[in-house]
Structures are given as C-alpha cells and as structure tokens.
Amino acid sequence: xxxxxxxxxxxxxxxxxxxxxxxxxxxxxxxxxxxxxxxxxxxxxxxxxxxxxxxxxxxxxxxxxxxxxxxxxxxxxxxxxxxxxxxxxxxxxxxxxxxxxxxxxxxxxxxxxxxxxxxxxxxxxxxxxxxxxxxxxxxxxxxxxxxxxxxxxxxxxxxxxxxxxxxxxxxxxxxxxxxxxxxxxxxxxxxxxxxxxxxxxxxxxxxxxxxxxxxxxxxxxxxxxxxxxxxxxxxxxxxxxxxxxxxx
Length: 248
Hints:
Elements: E1 7-11, E2 13-14, E3 22-23, H1 25-37, H2 45-48, E4 55-61, H3 64-77, E5 82-85, H4 113-121, E6 125-128, H5 141-159, E7 165-167, H6 175-184, E8 187-189, E9 208-209, H7 216-219, H8 225-247
Parallel strand pairs: 1-4, 1-9, 2-3, 4-5, 5-6, 7-8
Helix pairs in contact: 1-3, 5-6
C-alpha cells in the first residue's frame, strides 16, 4: 500500500444478496484481477505484518460460496488466503445462536469438512473462528476455553495440520478472551479498520472489511491518500456507532 503500508482484507460471503457481509462474485473477481495486474504482493497472513506494501486475504465463517467462487479465482491467480471456519457448523448453515435476526443476512450453506480439507490440501490456510460463533465477551472462562480448544482440535483432526491463527467473532476482545487466545494461537485477527505496521498487535491484527471497498474507486484507491482518508473516516464512524450501541 502507499508508503509501504500493508493490510489484511476481510471477506465473508460471495453472493448477490446485497447484505452487509456479502459482495458479488464478479466484484471479487475484478478485485483479484486488479491485485494481479498491479503486481500487489499478496502474501500469507503469517508474513503480511512484516511485508511492506503487501495484502493478505481472509474469509470469515467458511461459506460454501468460497469454495464455489473464491477458490477457483485464488487458484488461478496463485494467491494465498486464510479461511476462518466455525467448526460445529461445518456442513450446516450460518444460523448460530448469535446471528442477528431481521438483519438482512441470508441463511447460507457453509463448507463441509470434505471441502475444508480439500482447500487445505490446495494450500489455503484454515484458521479458527470458534466452535459456535458466540459473543465471547459474554462467556465464562470455561466456555471460552471450550470454544477455543474444542474448535482447534476439531479442525486439526479434519485437516491434519496445526491451526495457528484465530479470528474473534464480531471482533469481541476482552482481557480474558485475549489471554485464552494467546494460549492457543500465535496470532489473531480483529475487526479494527486500519492498515498494518510492524508494531501491530499480533493478537488483534486490524483488518479492512471489503464491504466498504465494493466500488472500484475505493478498492483501487487503497494505494492512494484518498484511500487512507476514506478508511480513517469509515473507522471513526464505526467507532461512533459502537459507542452508541454500547450506551443503549
């Protein structure tokens, strides 16, 4: 990114619903083509913090449309990616108890374990997104441990590889959650809307939600000063909304 800035991009679902977790498959293809044509370094999540100007691609929840739409494009572009799966919901739908109702988010299929194992064999990193996608700030210490250790063990058993990274559901991070995550994973991703630096918190790495970058002008402007200003404004608005929500 501009002046050596690197970043982690967050995707959820590639579909045509227009929901807040969705982008259209053709938009994703266009974005990957731009990264390839612009010679932007697309690197594994494990090294993006220390690779100036690079991008890492992450996908939360493990939707089946990753397998259908993103996986072929990533393979064609030879781009690495990380998919954070919700272990007890593999092969099911995104109807975990904390899924907001009447939010416009559609119920969609999630990858099953065979599909998760297939993308893992092809080089996609599989990360942990808990067992049931809970509000972790509301859990007891025992429940937090069960969500982390149970999910990690289930994924490792299915893919035959260690799971080394975590994504906080809803970005919820408390001291107790952080301490537990640190016992199980070398790194973890949050949802703070910001670029990376070599000093970014390895247990709360900021990510840029591509929902805000669906328009070509903004996605391709990530290298520009306008991109920095845009993300700072979006980040400030998000913080205001979160404070207002917390006060009610």
